[in-house]
Design a protein that fits this description.
There is one protein chain. It is built from no helices and 35 strands. With 418 residues, the chain is mostly beta strands. It has four domains: 124 residues, Jelly Rolls; 88 residues, Immunoglobulins (Immunoglobulin-like), CATH 2.60.40.10; 73 residues, Immunoglobulin-like (Sandwich), CATH 2.60.40; 109 residues, Immunoglobulin-like (Sandwich). Strands 1, 4, 6, 7, 8 and 10 form a six-stranded antiparallel beta sheet that branches. Strands 13, 15, 16, 18, 19 and 20 form a six-stranded mixed beta sheet that branches. A four-stranded antiparallel beta sheet has the order 24-23-26-27, with no helix packed on it. A hairpin with a 2-residue loop joins strand 6 and strand 7.
Length: 418
Protein backbone atom coordinates (compact mmCIF):
# COMPACT_ATOMS: atom_id res chain seq x y z
CA UNK A 1 0.00 0.00 0.00
CA UNK A 2 0.90 3.69 0.00
CA UNK A 3 1.59 5.72 3.13
CA UNK A 4 2.50 9.20 4.21
CA UNK A 5 6.27 8.68 3.68
CA UNK A 6 8.68 5.85 3.06
CA UNK A 7 9.63 5.44 6.71
CA UNK A 8 6.89 3.13 7.98
CA UNK A 9 7.66 2.12 11.56
CA UNK A 10 7.05 -1.63 11.65
CA UNK A 11 7.60 -3.77 14.73
CA UNK A 12 6.95 -7.31 15.88
CA UNK A 13 3.90 -8.09 17.96
CA UNK A 14 3.98 -9.84 21.30
CA UNK A 15 1.65 -12.47 19.79
CA UNK A 16 4.58 -14.39 18.35
CA UNK A 17 6.43 -15.04 15.11
CA UNK A 18 4.86 -13.56 11.98
CA UNK A 19 2.92 -10.88 13.83
CA UNK A 20 3.80 -7.33 12.93
CA UNK A 21 2.25 -3.95 13.61
CA UNK A 22 2.66 -0.38 12.50
CA UNK A 23 4.01 1.44 15.55
CA UNK A 24 4.98 4.90 16.76
CA UNK A 25 1.94 6.36 14.96
CA UNK A 26 1.51 10.13 15.41
CA UNK A 27 -1.38 12.51 14.67
CA UNK A 28 -1.68 13.49 11.00
CA UNK A 29 -0.08 10.30 9.65
CA UNK A 30 -2.07 8.06 7.32
CA UNK A 31 -2.09 4.77 5.41
CA UNK A 32 -3.66 4.34 1.95
CA UNK A 33 -4.66 1.18 0.08
CA UNK A 34 -6.37 0.40 -3.25
CA UNK A 35 -9.51 -1.69 -2.65
CA UNK A 36 -12.05 -3.42 -4.86
CA UNK A 37 -15.59 -3.42 -3.47
CA UNK A 38 -17.34 -6.20 -5.35
CA UNK A 39 -20.86 -5.28 -4.33
CA UNK A 40 -22.50 -2.14 -3.10
CA UNK A 41 -23.81 -2.48 0.42
CA UNK A 42 -23.23 -1.72 4.08
CA UNK A 43 -19.73 -2.33 5.44
CA UNK A 44 -18.25 -2.38 8.96
CA UNK A 45 -14.66 -1.53 9.98
CA UNK A 46 -12.56 -3.31 12.63
CA UNK A 47 -9.05 -2.28 13.77
CA UNK A 48 -6.72 -4.42 15.97
CA UNK A 49 -4.84 -1.91 18.10
CA UNK A 50 -2.76 -1.67 21.27
CA UNK A 51 -2.37 1.56 23.28
CA UNK A 52 -2.29 2.93 26.82
CA UNK A 53 -4.01 6.10 25.55
CA UNK A 54 -7.75 6.81 25.42
CA UNK A 55 -8.07 9.80 23.11
CA UNK A 56 -6.75 8.57 19.75
CA UNK A 57 -8.98 8.41 16.64
CA UNK A 58 -9.07 6.84 13.16
CA UNK A 59 -11.01 8.23 10.21
CA UNK A 60 -11.89 6.08 7.16
CA UNK A 61 -11.88 7.88 3.78
CA UNK A 62 -13.10 6.36 0.51
CA UNK A 63 -11.74 8.33 -2.46
CA UNK A 64 -10.94 11.16 0.01
CA UNK A 65 -14.55 11.31 1.26
CA UNK A 66 -14.90 10.76 5.03
CA UNK A 67 -17.36 7.86 5.44
CA UNK A 68 -16.86 7.05 9.13
CA UNK A 69 -16.22 10.22 11.11
CA UNK A 70 -13.76 9.94 14.03
CA UNK A 71 -13.61 6.36 15.38
CA UNK A 72 -12.56 6.48 19.04
CA UNK A 73 -9.64 4.23 20.10
CA UNK A 74 -9.88 3.33 23.79
CA UNK A 75 -6.98 2.23 25.96
CA UNK A 76 -6.18 -1.50 25.77
CA UNK A 77 -3.83 -1.31 28.75
CA UNK A 78 -0.46 -1.22 26.99
CA UNK A 79 1.51 -1.05 23.77
CA UNK A 80 1.36 -4.84 23.32
CA UNK A 81 -2.05 -5.47 24.87
CA UNK A 82 -4.33 -5.92 21.89
CA UNK A 83 -7.99 -5.08 21.43
CA UNK A 84 -10.46 -4.17 18.68
CA UNK A 85 -12.02 -0.82 17.74
CA UNK A 86 -15.06 -1.01 15.45
CA UNK A 87 -17.32 1.31 13.49
CA UNK A 88 -20.12 1.14 10.96
CA UNK A 89 -21.82 -0.18 9.08
CA UNK A 90 -21.76 2.52 6.40
CA UNK A 91 -22.96 2.26 2.77
CA UNK A 92 -20.16 1.88 0.21
CA UNK A 93 -20.51 1.81 -3.60
CA UNK A 94 -19.23 -1.05 -5.73
CA UNK A 95 -16.03 -0.66 -7.78
CA UNK A 96 -12.35 0.19 -7.41
CA UNK A 97 -11.61 2.79 -4.76
CA UNK A 98 -8.85 4.16 -2.56
CA UNK A 99 -9.23 3.45 1.16
CA UNK A 100 -7.33 5.82 3.42
CA UNK A 101 -6.86 5.66 7.20
CA UNK A 102 -6.12 9.02 8.82
CA UNK A 103 -4.86 9.04 12.43
CA UNK A 104 -5.56 11.75 14.99
CA UNK A 105 -6.65 12.50 18.53
CA UNK A 106 -9.20 14.39 20.55
CA UNK A 107 -8.32 16.60 23.50
CA UNK A 108 -4.63 16.57 24.46
CA UNK A 109 -2.07 15.20 22.01
CA UNK A 110 -0.67 12.04 23.60
CA UNK A 111 2.32 11.91 21.24
CA UNK A 112 2.41 8.35 19.98
CA UNK A 113 -1.19 7.24 19.47
CA UNK A 114 -1.32 3.44 19.19
CA UNK A 115 0.08 0.37 17.43
CA UNK A 116 -2.00 -0.97 14.51
CA UNK A 117 -1.86 -4.68 13.75
CA UNK A 118 -4.71 -4.97 11.20
CA UNK A 119 -7.63 -3.17 9.55
CA UNK A 120 -10.59 -5.24 8.34
CA UNK A 121 -13.54 -4.15 6.17
CA UNK A 122 -16.50 -6.54 6.26
CA UNK A 123 -19.79 -6.39 4.38
CA UNK A 124 -22.22 -6.52 7.26
CA UNK A 125 -25.47 -6.43 5.32
CA UNK A 126 -25.77 -7.73 1.79
CA UNK A 127 -29.51 -7.15 1.45
CA UNK A 128 -30.71 -4.81 -1.33
CA UNK A 129 -34.11 -3.28 -0.70
CA UNK A 130 -36.13 -2.10 -3.71
CA UNK A 131 -36.24 1.67 -4.33
CA UNK A 132 -39.16 3.93 -3.45
CA UNK A 133 -40.61 6.39 -5.96
CA UNK A 134 -43.54 8.83 -6.08
CA UNK A 135 -44.67 11.45 -8.60
CA UNK A 136 -44.83 14.92 -6.99
CA UNK A 137 -45.80 17.10 -9.97
CA UNK A 138 -48.21 17.57 -11.62
CA UNK A 139 -50.67 16.75 -8.87
CA UNK A 140 -53.63 14.45 -9.25
CA UNK A 141 -56.59 15.89 -11.23
CA UNK A 142 -54.43 18.77 -12.51
CA UNK A 143 -55.29 20.08 -15.98
CA UNK A 144 -52.18 20.49 -18.15
CA UNK A 145 -51.38 21.80 -21.61
CA UNK A 146 -48.28 22.24 -23.76
CA UNK A 147 -44.90 21.38 -22.21
CA UNK A 148 -45.23 19.83 -18.76
CA UNK A 149 -42.47 19.15 -16.19
CA UNK A 150 -43.09 15.72 -14.65
CA UNK A 151 -41.23 15.40 -11.33
CA UNK A 152 -40.70 12.47 -8.95
CA UNK A 153 -38.88 11.69 -5.72
CA UNK A 154 -36.90 8.43 -5.51
CA UNK A 155 -34.61 6.85 -2.91
CA UNK A 156 -32.80 3.55 -2.32
CA UNK A 157 -30.44 2.05 0.25
CA UNK A 158 -27.69 1.54 -2.34
CA UNK A 159 -28.60 4.31 -4.77
CA UNK A 160 -31.10 5.04 -7.54
CA UNK A 161 -29.66 4.54 -11.03
CA UNK A 162 -32.52 5.80 -13.18
CA UNK A 163 -36.16 6.91 -13.16
CA UNK A 164 -38.36 6.32 -16.21
CA UNK A 165 -41.58 8.29 -16.68
CA UNK A 166 -44.63 6.91 -18.49
CA UNK A 167 -48.00 8.23 -19.73
CA UNK A 168 -50.65 5.55 -20.11
CA UNK A 169 -47.83 2.98 -19.96
CA UNK A 170 -45.77 4.54 -22.77
CA UNK A 171 -42.35 5.97 -21.92
CA UNK A 172 -41.98 9.75 -22.18
CA UNK A 173 -38.36 9.92 -20.97
CA UNK A 174 -35.69 8.66 -18.59
CA UNK A 175 -33.64 10.63 -16.03
CA UNK A 176 -30.32 9.05 -15.00
CA UNK A 177 -29.02 12.00 -12.98
CA UNK A 178 -31.01 12.75 -9.88
CA UNK A 179 -28.59 15.35 -8.59
CA UNK A 180 -31.06 18.10 -9.45
CA UNK A 181 -34.15 15.96 -8.85
CA UNK A 182 -35.74 13.28 -11.01
CA UNK A 183 -37.72 14.90 -13.83
CA UNK A 184 -38.46 14.96 -17.55
CA UNK A 185 -40.21 17.50 -19.79
CA UNK A 186 -43.22 16.08 -21.63
CA UNK A 187 -45.04 17.59 -24.61
CA UNK A 188 -48.67 16.93 -23.69
CA UNK A 189 -49.79 17.74 -27.23
CA UNK A 190 -48.36 14.34 -28.24
CA UNK A 191 -51.52 12.73 -26.82
CA UNK A 192 -55.17 13.58 -27.19
CA UNK A 193 -57.16 15.65 -24.74
CA UNK A 194 -58.72 13.85 -21.79
CA UNK A 195 -57.73 11.86 -18.71
CA UNK A 196 -54.18 10.47 -18.75
CA UNK A 197 -52.28 8.29 -16.26
CA UNK A 198 -48.73 9.14 -15.12
CA UNK A 199 -46.38 6.60 -13.52
CA UNK A 200 -42.65 6.48 -12.75
CA UNK A 201 -40.34 3.46 -12.51
CA UNK A 202 -37.25 3.77 -10.30
CA UNK A 203 -34.37 1.30 -10.76
CA UNK A 204 -31.56 0.96 -8.19
CA UNK A 205 -27.88 0.16 -8.70
CA UNK A 206 -28.56 -3.56 -8.26
CA UNK A 207 -31.26 -3.58 -10.91
CA UNK A 208 -34.31 -3.74 -8.66
CA UNK A 209 -37.27 -1.62 -9.82
CA UNK A 210 -40.38 -0.09 -8.26
CA UNK A 211 -43.35 1.50 -10.03
CA UNK A 212 -44.96 4.53 -8.42
CA UNK A 213 -48.62 4.94 -7.63
CA UNK A 214 -50.50 6.18 -10.69
CA UNK A 215 -51.49 9.85 -10.97
CA UNK A 216 -54.47 10.78 -13.17
CA UNK A 217 -54.30 14.19 -14.87
CA UNK A 218 -56.42 15.95 -17.48
CA UNK A 219 -54.86 17.04 -20.77
CA UNK A 220 -56.52 20.07 -22.35
CA UNK A 221 -54.71 21.44 -25.39
CA UNK A 222 -57.79 22.40 -27.47
CA UNK A 223 -58.88 25.74 -26.05
CA UNK A 224 -62.55 26.76 -25.98
CA UNK A 225 -62.94 30.50 -26.66
CA UNK A 226 -64.27 32.86 -23.98
CA UNK A 227 -67.60 34.73 -24.11
CA UNK A 228 -67.71 38.54 -23.97
CA UNK A 229 -70.75 39.81 -22.06
CA UNK A 230 -71.35 43.25 -20.59
CA UNK A 231 -73.99 45.68 -19.33
CA UNK A 232 -74.15 49.47 -19.70
CA UNK A 233 -75.85 51.99 -17.41
CA UNK A 234 -75.87 55.64 -18.54
CA UNK A 235 -76.87 58.86 -16.83
CA UNK A 236 -76.54 61.99 -18.87
CA UNK A 237 -73.28 61.79 -20.81
CA UNK A 238 -71.63 59.29 -18.42
CA UNK A 239 -71.88 55.50 -18.73
CA UNK A 240 -70.74 52.67 -16.45
CA UNK A 241 -69.80 49.34 -18.08
CA UNK A 242 -69.62 45.94 -16.33
CA UNK A 243 -68.15 42.83 -18.01
CA UNK A 244 -67.90 40.69 -14.88
CA UNK A 245 -70.48 38.36 -16.43
CA UNK A 246 -68.04 37.34 -19.19
CA UNK A 247 -66.83 33.74 -18.88
CA UNK A 248 -64.35 31.16 -20.19
CA UNK A 249 -65.62 27.55 -20.14
CA UNK A 250 -62.17 25.95 -19.77
CA UNK A 251 -60.01 28.59 -18.14
CA UNK A 252 -60.00 32.19 -16.96
CA UNK A 253 -60.35 35.59 -18.61
CA UNK A 254 -57.14 37.57 -18.18
CA UNK A 255 -57.82 40.69 -20.29
CA UNK A 256 -60.64 43.16 -20.99
CA UNK A 257 -60.29 45.82 -23.73
CA UNK A 258 -62.97 48.47 -24.37
CA UNK A 259 -63.64 50.75 -27.36
CA UNK A 260 -66.28 53.37 -26.51
CA UNK A 261 -67.20 54.40 -30.05
CA UNK A 262 -65.90 57.97 -29.80
CA UNK A 263 -62.17 57.18 -30.02
CA UNK A 264 -61.88 56.46 -26.31
CA UNK A 265 -60.71 53.15 -24.85
CA UNK A 266 -60.45 51.42 -21.49
CA UNK A 267 -59.56 48.21 -19.67
CA UNK A 268 -60.66 46.10 -16.72
CA UNK A 269 -63.75 44.04 -16.02
CA UNK A 270 -65.56 47.24 -14.97
CA UNK A 271 -64.96 50.74 -16.31
CA UNK A 272 -66.70 54.05 -17.02
CA UNK A 273 -66.61 56.69 -19.74
CA UNK A 274 -68.01 60.20 -20.21
CA UNK A 275 -68.96 61.31 -23.73
CA UNK A 276 -68.47 64.86 -24.94
CA UNK A 277 -71.93 65.16 -26.46
CA UNK A 278 -75.32 63.57 -26.86
CA UNK A 279 -75.77 60.79 -29.42
CA UNK A 280 -75.61 57.06 -30.10
CA UNK A 281 -72.29 55.25 -29.69
CA UNK A 282 -71.25 51.65 -30.42
CA UNK A 283 -69.30 50.15 -27.52
CA UNK A 284 -67.11 47.08 -28.21
CA UNK A 285 -65.66 44.73 -25.58
CA UNK A 286 -62.84 42.27 -26.37
CA UNK A 287 -61.94 39.61 -23.77
CA UNK A 288 -58.83 37.39 -23.79
CA UNK A 289 -58.53 34.05 -21.95
CA UNK A 290 -55.51 32.46 -20.29
CA UNK A 291 -54.58 30.60 -23.48
CA UNK A 292 -54.75 33.65 -25.75
CA UNK A 293 -58.18 33.12 -27.33
CA UNK A 294 -60.37 36.23 -27.74
CA UNK A 295 -64.05 37.10 -28.13
CA UNK A 296 -65.91 40.34 -28.89
CA UNK A 297 -69.30 41.82 -28.08
CA UNK A 298 -70.80 45.18 -29.12
CA UNK A 299 -73.88 47.19 -28.19
CA UNK A 300 -75.17 50.71 -28.79
CA UNK A 301 -75.65 53.22 -25.99
CA UNK A 302 -77.69 56.42 -26.27
CA UNK A 303 -76.56 59.37 -24.17
CA UNK A 304 -77.99 62.86 -23.71
CA UNK A 305 -76.88 65.78 -21.61
CA UNK A 306 -78.94 66.22 -18.45
CA UNK A 307 -81.08 69.37 -18.33
CA UNK A 308 -79.62 72.10 -16.11
CA UNK A 309 -81.84 72.64 -13.06
CA UNK A 310 -82.54 75.16 -10.31
CA UNK A 311 -84.32 74.93 -6.96
CA UNK A 312 -85.21 76.94 -3.84
CA UNK A 313 -82.11 77.24 -1.65
CA UNK A 314 -83.61 79.26 1.21
CA UNK A 315 -87.09 80.50 2.21
CA UNK A 316 -87.55 83.02 5.05
CA UNK A 317 -90.64 84.96 6.21
CA UNK A 318 -91.56 87.88 8.48
CA UNK A 319 -94.88 89.23 9.85
CA UNK A 320 -95.77 92.90 10.52
CA UNK A 321 -98.76 94.12 12.59
CA UNK A 322 -99.98 97.73 12.62
CA UNK A 323 -102.94 99.43 14.34
CA UNK A 324 -105.46 98.67 11.70
CA UNK A 325 -103.76 96.14 9.35
CA UNK A 326 -101.14 93.30 9.06
CA UNK A 327 -98.82 92.09 6.29
CA UNK A 328 -96.35 89.21 5.58
CA UNK A 329 -93.09 89.26 3.65
CA UNK A 330 -91.00 86.34 2.29
CA UNK A 331 -87.42 86.25 1.03
CA UNK A 332 -86.69 83.58 -1.59
CA UNK A 333 -83.27 82.40 -2.76
CA UNK A 334 -83.04 80.46 -6.04
CA UNK A 335 -79.87 78.44 -6.63
CA UNK A 336 -78.44 76.20 -9.34
CA UNK A 337 -77.37 72.59 -8.92
CA UNK A 338 -73.90 73.67 -7.78
CA UNK A 339 -75.35 75.93 -5.06
CA UNK A 340 -74.68 79.24 -6.79
CA UNK A 341 -77.39 81.95 -6.89
CA UNK A 342 -79.51 82.19 -10.03
CA UNK A 343 -80.31 85.69 -11.30
CA UNK A 344 -83.36 86.61 -13.43
CA UNK A 345 -85.48 83.74 -12.15
CA UNK A 346 -89.20 84.48 -11.70
CA UNK A 347 -90.64 83.05 -8.48
CA UNK A 348 -94.43 82.55 -8.43
CA UNK A 349 -96.12 81.88 -5.10
CA UNK A 350 -99.32 82.16 -3.10
CA UNK A 351 -100.05 83.73 0.30
CA UNK A 352 -102.86 81.97 2.19
CA UNK A 353 -104.82 82.60 5.37
CA UNK A 354 -107.94 80.55 5.88
CA UNK A 355 -110.05 80.89 2.77
CA UNK A 356 -108.19 83.96 1.68
CA UNK A 357 -105.31 83.65 -0.88
CA UNK A 358 -103.26 85.96 -3.02
CA UNK A 359 -100.89 84.93 -5.85
CA UNK A 360 -97.77 87.09 -6.32
CA UNK A 361 -94.31 86.92 -7.94
CA UNK A 362 -90.80 88.39 -7.85
CA UNK A 363 -87.64 88.28 -9.98
CA UNK A 364 -84.28 87.35 -8.42
CA UNK A 365 -81.31 89.67 -8.46
CA UNK A 366 -77.64 88.88 -9.02
CA UNK A 367 -77.40 86.97 -5.72
CA UNK A 368 -80.42 84.85 -6.65
CA UNK A 369 -82.67 86.50 -4.02
CA UNK A 370 -86.01 88.30 -4.33
CA UNK A 371 -88.65 89.48 -1.85
CA UNK A 372 -92.47 89.23 -2.01
CA UNK A 373 -94.87 91.16 0.24
CA UNK A 374 -98.45 90.10 0.78
CA UNK A 375 -99.78 93.61 1.19
CA UNK A 376 -102.62 94.06 3.69
CA UNK A 377 -103.86 90.74 5.09
CA UNK A 378 -107.46 90.20 6.16
CA UNK A 379 -108.31 92.04 9.37
CA UNK A 380 -107.57 90.11 12.55
CA UNK A 381 -105.27 87.44 10.99
CA UNK A 382 -102.44 86.36 13.27
CA UNK A 383 -100.55 84.17 10.76
CA UNK A 384 -100.28 83.28 7.11
CA UNK A 385 -98.42 80.85 4.84
CA UNK A 386 -96.57 81.20 1.59
CA UNK A 387 -96.05 78.44 -0.97
CA UNK A 388 -93.73 78.55 -4.00
CA UNK A 389 -95.85 77.41 -6.92
CA UNK A 390 -93.29 77.62 -9.70
CA UNK A 391 -89.96 79.12 -10.78
CA UNK A 392 -89.20 80.01 -14.38
CA UNK A 393 -85.94 80.88 -16.13
CA UNK A 394 -84.75 81.31 -19.69
CA UNK A 395 -82.30 78.34 -19.57
CA UNK A 396 -82.85 76.43 -16.32
CA UNK A 397 -85.56 73.97 -15.31
CA UNK A 398 -87.19 74.15 -11.89
CA UNK A 399 -86.69 70.98 -9.78
CA UNK A 400 -89.00 71.28 -6.78
CA UNK A 401 -87.77 67.97 -5.35
CA UNK A 402 -84.41 69.61 -4.63
CA UNK A 403 -85.88 72.51 -2.61
CA UNK A 404 -84.26 73.07 0.78
CA UNK A 405 -84.04 75.53 3.67
CA UNK A 406 -80.71 75.40 5.56
CA UNK A 407 -82.05 77.18 8.67
CA UNK A 408 -84.96 74.73 8.95
CA UNK A 409 -87.86 77.19 9.30
CA UNK A 410 -89.53 75.79 6.17
CA UNK A 411 -89.36 72.78 3.88
CA UNK A 412 -88.04 74.94 1.04
CA UNK A 413 -91.44 75.13 -0.62
CA UNK A 414 -93.95 76.33 2.02
CA UNK A 415 -93.32 78.57 5.04
CA UNK A 416 -95.63 79.55 7.90
CA UNK A 417 -95.38 83.22 8.82
CA UNK A 418 -96.34 84.49 12.29
Amino acid sequence: GAYWNDDVDKESCSDGAGCYSVGWIESGEWLSYPVAITGAGNYAFSFRVATPNSNATIRVLIDDADVSGPIAISSTGGWQTWGNATSGPVPLPAGSHTLKLVFGYSGTNPGYLFNLNSATVTQSVAVDNPPTVAITSPGATTTVAGLVSVVATASDDIGVARVEFLVDGASIGVDTNGGDGWAVTWDSSSVGDGARTLTAIATDSAGQSTTSAAITINVKNLNAPPQALFTAACSGLSCAFDASGSLDPDGTIVGYAWLFGDGGSGSGSTTSHTYSGSGSYTVTLTVTDNQGATAQSSKTVDVAALAATMHIGDLDGSYARFWFWTSATVSVRVEAGDGSGVASATVNGTFRQGTWSKRMSCVTGTAGVCTISSGTLPSGTASASFTVDSVTHATLTYDATANRDPDGDSDGTTISIR
